């Protein structure tokens, strides 16, 4: 059965900032790739995708994860592929991490989806709409309040 997990970001958490959010996404990527999953990260736009890819390059060597932007990298891709709306992920991805605020219709081709409920009220409403889309598509849903600190 397909699953969708929504992580709730609290206003007073480290993840409320872009740097903290990227750190958490990187943490999730390390977790899933350690289990052998190949991931696709869907960003809002090209600029966000490039910022995230750059963040992945800035981690310590011990935390490094091979990654590439869509259209770059080796033929069969790396464990983490980063793209944005309007681009099609590689065929060999099992899990999608959605960072975009729009509807996640692309996600129906993945067995597992990770999504987020941001702090801002408008973004929360959009996340609720995505939640409904996943539910209507038959995904098993769960929500998790982020309990992660980089320090």
Low-confidence residue ranges: none
| Rg calc | 14 Å
Q: What's the overall geometry?
A: globular
Element order: H for helix, E for strand = EHEHEEEEHE
Major sheet description = 7 strands, parallel
**How many domains in all?**
1
Q: Return the structural class.
A: alpha/beta
Mean of the pLDDT scores?
88
Oligomer classification: single chain
Q: What is the annotated CATH architecture?
A: 3-Layer(aba) Sandwich
Task: Please give the share of residues in helix.
Answer: 25-40%
- Per the CATH scheme, the topology name is Rossmann fold
Distance between the amino and carboxyl termini: 35 Å
> What strand line-up does the widest sheet have?
3-4-2-5-6-1-7
Q: Per DSSP, what share of the residues sits in E-state strands of 2 or more residues?
A: 15-25%
Looking at this protein, list some descriptive labels.
151 residues; 3 helices; globular
Can you characterise this structure?
This protein is 30% helix and 23% strand. It has a single domain (3-145), classed as DNA polymerase III subunit chi (Rossmann fold, 3-Layer(aba) Sandwich), CATH 3.40.50.10110. The N and C termini lie far apart (35 Å). A seven-stranded parallel beta sheet has the order 3-4-2-5-6-1-7, with helices on both faces. The model has no long low-confidence stretch (mean pLDDT 88). It contains three helices and seven strands; from the N terminus they run βαβαββββαβ. With 151 residues, the protein is α/β, with parallel strands linked by helices. Keywords: Nucleotidyltransferase, Transferase. InterPro entries: DNA_pol3_chi, PolIII_chi_sf. GO terms for molecular function: DNA binding; DNA-directed DNA polymerase activity. This is DNA polymerase III subunit chi. Pfam families: DNA_pol3_chi.
